[in-house]
Design goal:
six-stranded mixed sheet; binds zinc ion; Purple Acid Phosphatase, chain A, domain 2; globular; alpha/beta
Length: 242
C-alpha cells in the first residue's frame, strides 16, 4: 500500500493542495494532526482533508486548543491569537469533525500520534534521550510523529542508550527497520530552514519511506494571513522555513 504521510498543515491550503497534486496516486492518506492554527485557511483545509478517501487522522495540540481542550496560556501569544481567530471562523461541522479525531491510531505495523507515543498531544521529540524513553510507549514496529515540523528519524538502540537519529534526505528512499519513529516534517509551516512543504510517501508492505519537498506559492498565503489580520510573524516565517 502506498500512503501519503502529512502533518502540521496549519491552515495553509496552498501548501496542502500543492502536496496533494505533487504526490500522485496513493491508496491512503495518513495525517498526523495540527490541520489548523497559525494559517488563514482552517475551514478550507479541514474540508479538503475530510474529502480525502481512505483518510486516517489524529488530533494535534492546535486542533485540541481550538476545541478548548487545553489551556491557551500554554501557547505563545502569536499562536494564541490564531487559535482564537480559528475558533471564531470554523464552521460547526468542522469543529465537530475535529472533536472526533483520536489522539492515537494504529494501522497494521504503524502507530500514529501527533507529538510522541508517551504524550501524543504535547511532547516534542527532538532529542535522542527523550526518543529512547518513548519506545516503551508503543507496541508496533513503527511510530509516525509530527509536531516539531522537522523531518527526523529515531531508531531504537537499547533501553538505556540514546536513540540513533538521522535526517532523511529528500528523494532518497530509505528502508525502515523495526523500532523506528519517524517524522515527515510540516506541510504548512516547515521549521528546518527549508521553506518548501514537506511530506513523505510510505510503502507499507516494503516499509520504504521517501521524504519529499515541494515549492508552493508562499506569497499568496502570506497575503491571506495579513488580510485576516493574523500576526505578521506567521507570514514572514514561511519564507524562512522557520
Ligand atoms: Zn504544529
Amino acid at each position: 500500500m502506498r500512503v501519503l504521510i502529512i502533518s502540521d498543515i496549519h491552515a495553509n491550503l496552498t501548501a496542502l493542495d500543492t502536496v496533494l497534486n505533487d504526490v500522485g496516486i496513493v491508496d491512503e492518506v495518513w495525517c498526523l494532526g495540527d490541520i489548523v492554527g497559525y494559517g488563514p485557511d482552517p475551514n478550507e483545509c479541514i474540508n479538503r482533508i475530510r474529502s480525502l478517501p481512505n483518510l486516517v487522522c489524529v488530533l494535534g495540540n492546535h486542533d485540541a486548543a481550538v476545541l478548548g481542550w487545553i489551556p491557551l496560556d500554554a501557547f505563545h501569544q502569536d499562536a494564541r491569537h490564531a487559535i482564537y481567530w480559528t475558533r471564531s471562523v470554523l464552521t460547526k461541522e468542522n469543529l465537530e469533525w475535529l472533536a472526533e479525531l483520536p489522539e492515537r491510531r494504529v494501522v497494521g505495523d504503524f502507530t500514529l500520534v501527533h507529538g510522541s507515543p508517551r504524550n501524543p498531544i504535547w511532547e516534542y521529540l527532538l532529542d535522542p534521550v527523550s526518543a529512547a524513553q518513548n519506545f516503551a510507549y508503543f507496541d508496533t514496529d513503527f511510530c509516525l510523529i509530527g509536531h516539531t515540523h522537522i523531518p527526523l528519524q529515531f531508531s531504537f538502540v537499547s533501553a538505556d542508550y540514546p536513540a540513533r537519529w538521522t535526517q532523511p534526505m529528500v528523494r532518497r528512499q530509505i528502508s525502515l527497520r523495526p523500532r523506528t519513529m519517524i517524522n515527515p516534517g510540516s506541510v504548512g509551516q516547515p521549521r528546518d530552514h527549508d521553506p518548501r512543504a514537506a511530506y513523505a510517501i510510505l510503502e507499507t508492505d516494503e516499509r520504504l519511506w521517501l521524504a519529499r519537498r515541494v515549492i508552493y506559492d508562499i506569497e499568496s498565503v502570506q497575503r491571506r494571513i495579513l488580510n485576516a489580520e493574523l500576526p505578521a510573524r506567521h507570514a514572514t516565517r514561511l519564507s524562512d522555513g522557520w
